[in-house]
């Protein structure tokens, strides 16, 4: 290449600028680490860049990219089982960062303890506000699997949150 970009570089750059922050936030909720979230987001967007010219349905692009982010996270977890954290009965101590309420830290810590597949369902359903069918499409599973994983994930999250759950009002008693 002679220094000239591809014809779709401008279009991809605009998409990247508009969506990278949101995708990184989703990846962070999945993995609980900003550096790892950045890696997941970069990997997903690199995959998108490579197939950008072939994407015929740009109207569903956000859903497709979100699916790539979630699948990248799940694939990374399968490859890195040996690096998993050991769960304990106590929440870790965190310093509250600028402007971030303490309950957000407690919820993120509890979310990190939820198994990855259930966490992916919770993030897609409640953070990204996707419906059951959209979540199923993003994860490549059935709507019934989404419902059961959401129920199990919410139960695990409630158990982790313990007495903090009632005060936070993060998820309603029926999940949603």
TrEMBL record:
Give the coiled coil ranges: none
What's the protein name? Answer: Uncharacterized protein
Q: Which UniProt keywords apply?
A: DNA-binding, Sigma factor, Transcription, Transcription regulation
Origin species, per record, is Kutzneria albida DSM 43870
Q: Does the keyword DNA-binding apply?
A: yes
Q: Where is the RNA polymerase sigma-70 region domain?
A: 22-82
Q: Family assignment?
A: Belongs to the sigma-70 factor family. ECF subfamily.
> Does the keyword section mention Lipoprotein?
no
UniProt cross-references to NCBIfam families, sorted A to Z: SigE-fam_strep (TIGR02983), sigma70-ECF (TIGR02937)
Which Gene Ontology terms cover its molecular function? Answer: DNA binding; sigma factor activity
Give the range the annotation lists for the signal sequence.
none
Which InterPro entries would you find in this protein's record? RNA_pol_sigma-70-like, RNA_pol_sigma-70_dom, RNA_pol_sigma-E_actinobac, RNA_pol_sigma70_r2, RNA_pol_sigma70_r4_t2, RNA_pol_sigma_r2, RNA_pol_sigma_r3/r4-like, WH-like_DNA-bd_sf
Any idea where the RNA polymerase sigma factor 70 region 4 type domain is? 106-157
A GO biological process of this protein is: DNA-templated transcription initiation
Q: Record's PANTHER family?
A: ECF RNA POLYMERASE SIGMA FACTOR SIGM, RNA POLYMERASE ECF-TYPE SIGMA FACTO
């Amino acid at each position: 290449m002679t220094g000239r970009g591809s014809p779709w570089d401008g279009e991809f750059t605009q998409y990247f600028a508009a969506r990278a922050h949101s995708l990184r936030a989703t990846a962070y909720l999945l993995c609980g680490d900003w550096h790892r979230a950045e890696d997941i987001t970069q990997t997903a967007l690199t995959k998108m860049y490579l197939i950008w010219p072939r994407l015929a349905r740009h109207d569903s692009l956000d859903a497709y990219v979100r699916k790539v982010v979630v699948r990248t996270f799940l694939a990374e977890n399968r490859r890195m089982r040996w690096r998993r954290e050991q769960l304990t009965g106590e929440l870790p101590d965190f310093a509250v960062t600028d402007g971030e309420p303490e309950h957000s830290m407690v919820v993120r810590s509890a979310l990190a303890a939820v198994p990855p597949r259930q966490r992916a369902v919770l993030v897609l359903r409640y953070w990204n506000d996707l419906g059951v069918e959209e979540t199923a499409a993003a994860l490549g599973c059935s709507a019934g699997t989404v419902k059961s994983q959401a129920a199990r994930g919410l139960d695990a999250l409630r158990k982790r949150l313990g007495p903090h759950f009632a005060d936070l009002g993060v998820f309603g008693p029926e999940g949603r």
